[in-house]
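2.7 Reproducibility. Because tokenized structures are sensitive to small changes in the input, we list the exact sequence used for Nicotinate dehydrogenase subunit A, including any N-terminal residues retained from the expression construct. No trimming or masking was applied before prediction.
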Amino acid sequence: MRKAITLTVNGKSRPADVDTNLSLLDLLRAELGLRGPKYGCGMAQCGACTVLIDEVPARACMLRAARIDGAAVTTLEGLADAETGALHPVQQGFLKAEGAQCGYCLNGMVMTAVALLRRTPDPSDALIRDALRHNICRCGAHLEIVASVREAARLLRGADV
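Resulting structure tokens (single pass, no recycling of outputs):
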């Protein structure tokens, strides 16, 4: 069965005719060519596929695209400034504090950190760890990831984002 939907993806209206079983992740990657969200576990457990839906972190691998008709979806690609290409402060924080090794978890860590810092501009390390607890980093870069979010918070407090 198919359904016509329209999503706002990274600020652009994107109509699509989707199979009702198509995951949001498959729509974003296969049909829209966005590579930020990754396929990790396919069970919403690892966080590699995290996107923001109406500003709330969500696992795209388990969401059916047809069920979020009308929603605003932000992917990793949508964080950078569209006009200048300047990276979002959270992306800058991860670069500066070297918060990635292999980079596979990076999408989920960044997207979850963006949502956290919008809610809590100056989180404690405990709050950062709690917010990221459902995102798996297999490389063990957890200390650098926490430092990256702290750096991003510092950058955001100095920037109007």
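Helices lie at 24-31, 89-96, 106-119, 125-131, 142-158.
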